[in-house]
Write a structure and sequence with these properties.
heterodimer, B: 2-enoyl-CoA Hydratase, Chain A, domain 1, 3 domains, eight-stranded mixed sheet, 17 strands
Chain lengths: ~110, ~525
């Protein structure tokens, strides 16, 4: 790999990485933000994830219980509001990962269906 | 004799106010590596040019025992002065007085100087150093913020508005800087956030320092909220002076012309861009090879580095540069670089600054994160900004100009006044590899040796389309030029565009894809 000639000659020559765009490979540097990007994963309907940071106030289901779509699963207090988490599907609860009083960030797994 | 006494009384009162929150509070301020509000103003403005107003303003709060409290100047200093001979309006919050908290009279002083700046059409500089709303004044302090935001919006596009964050700036207070044109931050001193580390800790249990949450580096590298980063306050003031030398005082004027100077000889324009389109270079070297004295003043240097923006002079006249940077992420357009370019183009357009675009990009950054972050909506901002801009628009295609990126980067189709291309330019619907794979899919898959066939087709496509002459034959490029001819032809283009006049359809305002 040829070193890039900067006429500015400020600091060391940057370390170049490969980036493919429309079939062509380019030699370039990456930004901190680009390096920190997260890979996308397909959402799993069986996993109920918190959509807002907050505190669990009530757990309304137990493992093994059968629930229908839109049944109440949990109450989470966030932004001074009591938010209801509803079942996204009809099915049997496999695991409840949280208990009353838990303080959680956004994106935490709360309940999993069988 | 009475007059003498009265004058003595005046001096005594002035001195008292100038002590702000008193010796102890000043010591504390200086221990944090911060200057006091008045010292900051004196350091920034021309010597002895500052005139202070509303020095004897007092708050009128009565609740929570506030009546007993004397807050000198109500925690903010306002006035007028000069920067390199040009008049400016300025306010500086005084952290030594009640933590620079914003009460009603404090906000009225800021509003007064903001209105003055708009009337007199001079730049407004705000030095922010405040703990936030003065809680004791309740809804009055909220009203104060609202009045400031409203005037920031009115002033926008009429006069340059500069925010200097020299202390905490939290909660609603951050929205005044966000509404202004340029935000300056200083390492270890500037802190900006909507909700601070303590709230985040109590609600989420997430522990983060103020610096990591909303320090100077975060806003210069991650969020893009800040435009200029400095290591200390003195350095920050130097940057502000330099910025003001490039921009006009208001939207009826042009920037003050400086003495023309040739670029420095060490920037050899013909030796910067590699022939191989996959190899990078620093586009700022090309800018430096073109502008007066090789002096390029970059904006948002550390954020969205794949696109470079900033000011340089052409024969003494300020021009705004918008350039793809192959050195970072191959110079692609993405969410952040689109936002960066579009806002700068609109700034140049509002303040009569010709725009010079240097093009070398492979297209848009691929990725789920980009698509889901709304790269469609963000990318559209560039198209909107270029199309709407009526200042002289000059474009030079240095190397790659593929697909949507070609259209977006100041193309003829968005009404560039002049489009030039170097002989190395490749103007095509997409890169040779991608195009050959699609057009010759059948030939390639059916060939005895598909890889060999692919290579051959890529070569064919390259020869036929990866050049500036196809676009030049259609008049989309006005002239194919040697790199060495770039400065002269740009100078000529600026000269003939000096009285450019185009009008847009009558409307109240457009609806840009914010």
């Amino acid at each position: 790999m040829e070193e890039i000639k900067s006429q500015q000659s400020k600091g060391e020559a940057p370390v170049l990485k490969e980036l493919v765009i429309q079939g062509s490979t380019y030699y370039t540097t990456f930004t901190r933000k680009y390096l920190r990007r997260q890979n996308w994963v397909k959402p799993d309907k069986k996993k109920v994830i918190s959509f807002i940071p907050g505190t669990i106030r009530q757990v309304l289901v137990k493992p093994g219980e059968n629930v229908k779509t839109d049944d109440k699963l949990l109450i989470i207090e966030a932004m001074k509001m009591m938010n209801t988490i509803q079942a996204p599907m009809t099915g049997k609860i496999k695991t409840v990962f949280v208990k009353e009083g838990d303080c959680l960030p956004k994106g935490t797994i709360l309940v999993e269906f069988e | 004799m009475a007059l003498k006494k009265q004058i003595q009384e005046l001096h005594k009162r002035r001195e008292e106010v100038q002590m702000g929150g008193g010796e102890k509070a000043i010591e504390k301020q200086e221990a944090m590596g911060k200057m006091t509000a008045r010292n900051r103003i004196h350091a920034l403005l021309d010597k002895d040019s500052f005139q202070e107003y509303d020095m004897f303003v007092q708050h009128e709060a009565r609740d929570f025992d506030m009546a007993k409290k004397v807050l000198h100047g109500d925690g903010v200093v306002i006035g007028t002065g000069n920067i390199t001979g040009q008049p400016v309006c300025i306010f500086a919050q005084d952290f030594t007085v009640a933590g620079g908290s914003l009460g009603l009279m404090h906000s009225r002083k800021i509003v007064k100087i903001m209105e003055h700046a708009l009337k007199m059409k001079v730049p407004l500089i705000g030095i922010n150093d405040s703990g936030g709303a003065r809680i004791q004044e309740g809804v009055n302090s909220l009203a104060g913020y609202g009045e400031i935001f409203f005037r920031n919006t009115l002033n926008s596009g009429v006069i340059p508005q500069i925010s200097v964050i020299l202390g905490p700036c939290a909660g609603g207070a951050v929205y005044s800087p966000a509404l202004t044109d340029y935000v300056f931050v200083v390492e270890n001193i500037s802190k900006m956030f909507i909700t601070g580390p303590e709230v985040i800790k109590t609600v989420l249990g997430e522990e983060i320092s103020m610096e990591d949450l909303g320090g100077a580096r975060v806003h210069s590298e991650i969020t893009g909220n800040a435009h200029f980063f400095a290591e200390n306050e003195q350095d920050c003031f130097k940057q502000i002076k330099k910025l003001l030398s490039f921009v006009p005082a208001n939207n009826d004027r042009k920037a003050v012309k400086q003495k023309p100077k040739p670029p420095k000889p060490e920037y050899r324009i013909g030796e910067i861009v590699p022939d191989d389109a996959s190899l990078p270079y620093d586009v700022r070297d090309v800018i430096r090879a073109v502008v007066d004295d090789s002096d390029f003043f970059e904006i948002q240097e550390n954020w969205a580095g794949n696109l470079v923006i900033g000011y340089g002079r052409m024969n003494g006249e300020t021009c705004g540069f918008v350039c793809n940077q192959p050195l970072v992420l191959a110079g692609v357009l993405d969410v952040d670089s689109s936002d960066k370019a579009a806002r700068f183009i609109r700034y140049c357009d509002a303040f009569n600054i010709p725009i010079i675009t240097l093009v070398d990009l492979p297209g848009y950054l691929p990725g789920v994160d980009q698509e889901h972050a709304g790269v469609i909506r963000h990318g559209a901002k560039i198209l909107y900004a270029y199309s709407e801009a009526t200042v002289p628009k000059l474009t030079v295609i240095l190397r790659k100009a593929y697909g949507g990126g070609y259209i977006a980067m100041g193309s003829r189709h968005l009404r560039a006044d002049f489009v030039f291309a170097w002989p190395t330019a490749e103007v095509a619907v997409m890169g040779p590899e991608g195009a050959a794979n699609i057009i010759f899919r059948k030939e390639i898959t059916e060939a005895e040796n598909p890889e060999e066939m692919r290579q051959q087709k890529v070569r064919e496509y390259k020869e036929k389309f990866a050049n500036p002459y196809v676009a030049a034959a259609k008049g989309y490029i006005d002239s194919v030029i040697a790199p060495e001819e770039t400065r002269n032809i740009l100078l000529h283009a600026i000269e003939v565009s000096v009285d450019k006049a185009v009008s847009l359809p009558r409307k109240k305002h457009g609806i840009p894809p914010f």
